[in-house]
Amino acid sequence: MKVKKILVSQPKPDTDKSPYFDLAEKTNIKIDFRPFIQVEGVSAKEFRQTRIQILDHSAVIFTSRTAIDHFFRISQELRITIPDTMKYFCVSEATAFYLQKYIIYRKRKIFYGNGKLNDLTEVMKKHKDEKFLVPLSHIHKEEIPDLLDKCGYKYTKAVLYRTVSSDLSDLKDVNYDILVFFSPSGIKSLLQNFPDFKQNDTKIASFGPSTASAVKEAGLRLDIEAPTPQAPSMTMALEQFIKNNNK
Questions:
Q1: Is residue 56 a contact partner of residue 86, using CB atoms and an 8 Å limit?
Q2: Among 43, 158, 169, 218, which residue has the fewest nearby CB atoms (within 10 Å)?
Q3: What is the rounded distance in angstroms from the CA atom of residue 221 to the CA atom of residue 176?
Q4: Does residue 192 share a domain with residue 147?
Q5: Statement: residue 87 has pLDDT above 90
């Protein structure tokens, strides 16, 4: 069966320069985008119940832009003024620059790593006495607290947002040849929205080992996997599959 329509379970790229648009043009295939999951902020009331005091901390560790958004959102909702002395430790330079949305960048103490948490903990060594706050999602990688424990840092985990399934009821009668997933939460959303989902001829593509495991654990067939040495990106894996399939 030839591939004609693909659904990517992510928001549509906000730039014309996306490898997905190039793929659609190159292969003459329709590619739609639809986020299967969405991020919801924890309410100020819920956060108060955790008894975490933001101002008891002298530094914040940010692993994503989403964490930055929700840290400043909850601070505003709780009417907390973050002092100029607060230090910010970001996993990458791009994440650090995103802070400009909320603070005057050049007037703050901001430190960043090269995109890896290991690297950031090295940067933090010179600030061992700080008390760190770590804004996270309710589902997060345990490597973050594990690494901080190993290095002996004083820190508090603050769950400020959660990932929930989107309502996909409007897709009920829409059929795609390939469904593309990037997280276990996406697979969970598929099965929550369509508990009677039958895969049949629908191909499933997944990115990353945890997503691949979630596909298999759900009893689904995994047809396209990335990254691999031959296909380091999802679009490359899709292109290779389409070339072989649509001969």
A1: no
A2: 169
A3: 15
A4: no
A5: yes
Domain boundary among 163, 180, 214: 163
State how far the Cα of 72 lies from the Cα of 197, in Å rounded to an integer.
39
Same domain for 51 and 156, yes or no, is yes
Q: How far apart are CA 86 and CA 110, in angstroms?
A: 9
Question: For residues 103 and 73, what is the distance between their CA atoms, to the nearest angstrom?
Answer: 13
Main-chain dihedrals φ then ψ at residue 55, nearest 5 degrees: -75, 0
Confidence of residue 28 (pLDDT cuts 50, 70, 90): very high
In terms of domains, do 50 and 26 share one?
no
Residue-level pLDDT at 139: 76
- In the chain, what percentage of residues exceed pLDDT 70? 100
Domain co-membership, 48 together with 16: no
What is 90-109 written as a DSSP string?
ESSHHHHHHGGGTS-GGGSE
pLDDT-derived band at 133, boundaries 50, 70, 90: very high
Same-domain pairing of 158 and 69: yes
First-residue to last-residue Cα distance in the chain: 10
Domain count within the chain? 2
Structure tokens at 149: 């424990």
Burial label, 245 (beta-carbon count in 10 A; 0-12, 13-18, 19+): middle
Tokens representing 49 are 């119940």
Q: How many CB atoms lie within 10 A of CB 179?
A: 25
What CATH number does residue 186 fall under?
Answer: 3.40.50.10090
Distance CA 208, CA 107 (A): 38
Query: Same structural domain for residues 81 and 134?
Result: yes
Number of C-beta neighbours around residue 1 at 10 A: 9
